[in-house]
Structures are given as structure tokens and as C-alpha cells.
Write a structure and sequence with these properties.
By secondary structure, this protein is an alpha/beta fold. The protein has one domain: NAD(P)-binding Rossmann-like Domain (Rossmann fold, 3-Layer(aba) Sandwich). It has eleven helices and seven strands. Strands 3-2-1-4-5-6-7 form a seven-stranded parallel beta sheet, with helices on both faces. α4 links the parallel β4 and β5. The longest helix has 34 residues. The termini are far apart. Keywords: Endoplasmic reticulum, Lipid metabolism, NADP, Oxidoreductase, Sphingolipid metabolism. Pfam families: adh_short (PF00106). GO terms for molecular function: 3-dehydrosphinganine reductase activity.
């Protein structure tokens, strides 16, 4: 990554910050975007500490990533266009569907889908305009990485708003993966990637545990105390390592942090490219379809029915 410039939307905390730190440790110049300047400044210090040479730059830009015009202005105002864009910004809204109001649904879609859509659209417009004016004939690789969730593959009660927004991000990534092929250019090659992390431990996860319905925790396997969950689930550092490795391999779908996520992706692969040569995903699709996902589904349905019985008692 030495000499590359990376923009990270949602890079002030959690997974976005870990990705920024690891890419800085590989020599990349980093610009992180988020709303809170205080948290951005603290993240910038941590990222600066990971640099491998002093000339590397780290910038922190305060912005509402859910405002398309502000995103466009912020990206235009940077000294350099990035080689890579990570769309990491997001957040969770918990609660059963009938308990949510319209603002909850709109907020979750804005935090997860629109932040990804606006940042990706803005950078693609800037890249394609830059290609038209470019005088160099050397080939440039330009990449967009969407961070969605394993929630894009299944519906878990209590995640109605969140799951829908993450499904939208997956659909956007699938669509853009093909749309960028419309821009054959001697100057740039575009690739799109989509990561589907499952449960992992961050400060935000710890706070979310306080608000999740008990049924949601039971289904996703997070009912235990946080000390036990920290032993069971990966850290943001480990998840970031897997995502960066998946991008380096050229995978469209990145599901490295959990075997369960690989089963879910394989059983819902649709028109997305299979990973690697496709042999493993082909096998997993059949195995998961016959043995894994039906068992999960029946178990989750029983939990929901027991919840109804408890409510009547």
C-alpha cells in the first residue's frame, strides 16, 4: 500500500479505525471521515502511530456522511483523490418492527445505506472525471470496499431496520460491480468488494448489548456476559485483517471472520461472484442448503414461538 491514498468513511472508531491503522502500517496515506471531530482527532493519533515512514499523511475530516452534497464537497476539497475507498460508516437500530417508528427506519437506512451510496457515488464521479483529464497511460487500480454485515443474509427478529439497510448495501455493491465495467479505460481499472462481518467485539457492540431484545441475543448467540463473548467472538482488529486480506486476493465477497457467514453467503450467492475458483462455495451452497440453514431456520422459528408463549403467561 506504500504510496496509495485511502479514504475511510466511518474511520473514527471500531472497524473503520482498525482498517485505517492496518493500512497505515502498510504504508498508505489515510483520510478518515466521520461526524465527531473529537473522536476523529483521537483516531488520527492512533493511526499516526502506525505509520512506517514520517512522510505518510493522515487527515481527519468532520462531515455528515448522510448528506450527499457535503460528501461531494469534502471529497473534492482533498489534496489527492484516493486509490481506495472503504465505506464503513453505519450503526444499528434495535427493536421489533412494530415497536419502531418511522424515524428509526429512516435513521438506520441513512446510517448504513445512504452513507455508503453517497460516498461511493461521489468518488466514482470524481474518478471518472479524473480519468478523462488524465495524461498518463499507466494503469491505475481504483477500489471501493463496502462493509455490510452477515445480517444481509438472514432476518433476525429485533434487527428489522438494520437487516433491510444492510441488504440494500449488498445490492448496491452487486450492482456497482457490474456498472464499473462500463468504464473501460486505458488509465484506470475499477473493482468493487463487499465484506460481510458477523458478530465481533467493539465498544459499540458492548453498548448495543444493553438495548437488544433478549430474543435477538438468543438467536444470534450473544446472551452470555460480555466477558464470555470476548472469548467467543473476534476483535475488530482480526476482522479488519481478514477484510484487507480479502481485498488483496481480489475477492468480491469477503466472509473470513466466521464459518457461519460462509455458509450463509454460499446459500444466498445469487449472481455474486464465488470466492476463489468457486469450488468451495459450490460445495458449501449444497451442504448449507440441505443441512445447515434448514436446521438454523427451524431453531429460530421455535425460539420465536416460545417467545409468544412467554408473552401470554
Amino acid at each position: 500500500m506504500r504510496g496509495k491514498t485511502v479514504f475511510i468513511a466511518g474511520g473514527s472508531a471500531g472497524l473503520g479505525k482498525e482498517i485505517a491503522k492496518q493500512l497505515a502500517a502498510q504504508g498508505a496515506d489515510i483520510t478518515i471521515f466521520a461526524r465527531g471531530q473529537g473522536q476523529l482527532d483521537e483516531a488520527k493519533k492512533e493511526i499516526l502511530a502506525e505509520r512506517i515512514y514520517l512522510a505518510q499523511t493522515v487527515h481527519a475530516v468532520s462531515i455528515d456522511l448522510g448528506d450527499a452534497s457535503k460528501v461531494q464537497d469534502a471529497f473534492k476539497s482533498q489534496d489527492r483523490l484516493p486509490d481506495v475507498l472503504y465505506c464503513v460508516a453505519g450503526g444499528t437500530t434495535h427493536g421489533f418492527f412494530t415497536d419502531l417508528d418511522a424515524r428509526d427506519l429512516e435513521s438506520c437506512m441513512k446510517k448504513n445505506y445512504f452513507t455508503a451510496a453517497y460516498t461511493a457515488q461521489s468518488i466514482l464521479r470524481l474518478w471518472t472525471e479524473d480519468d478523462k483529464a488524465a495524461k498518463t497511460t499507466s494503469q491505475r487500480l481504483r477500489q471501493i470496499i463496502f462493509i455490510t454485515s452477515a445480517a444481509a443474509f438472514l432476518g433476525v427478529p429485533g434487527y428489522a431496520a438494520y437487516t433491510a439497510s444492510k441488504c440494500a448495501v449488498r445490492a448496491l455493491a452487486d450492482t456497482l460491480r457490474m456498472e464499473v465495467l462500463r468504464h473501460p479505460d486505458k488509465v484506470s481499472t475499477y473493482t468493487v468488494h463487499c465484506a460481510f462481518p458477523s458478530t465481533f467485539i467493539t465498544e459499540a457492540f458492548v453498548e448495543e448489548q444493553k438495548m437488544k431484545p433478549e430474543l435477538t441475543k438468543r438467536i444470534e448467540g450473544t446472551l452470555a456476559p460480555i466477558e464470555e463473548l470476548e472469548k467467543q467472538y473476534p476483535s475488530a482488529t482480526r476482522v479488519a485483517e481478514g477484510i484487507i486480506a480479502g481485498v488483496s486476493r481480489g475477492d468480491f465477497a469477503i466472509c473470513d471472520d466466521s464459518p457461519d457467514t460462509s455458509y450463509l453467503f454460499a446459500s444466498m450467492i445469487g449472481p455474486s461472484p464465488k470466492r476463489g475458483l468457486g469450488v468451495v462455495d459450490t460445495f458449501l451452497a449444497a451442504y448449507a442448503g440441505w443441512f445447515i440453514t434448514p436446521r438454523w431456520r427451524r431453531g429460530w422459528e421455535k425460539m420465536c414461538k416460545r417467545e409468544a408463549l412467554r408473552a401470554r403467561l
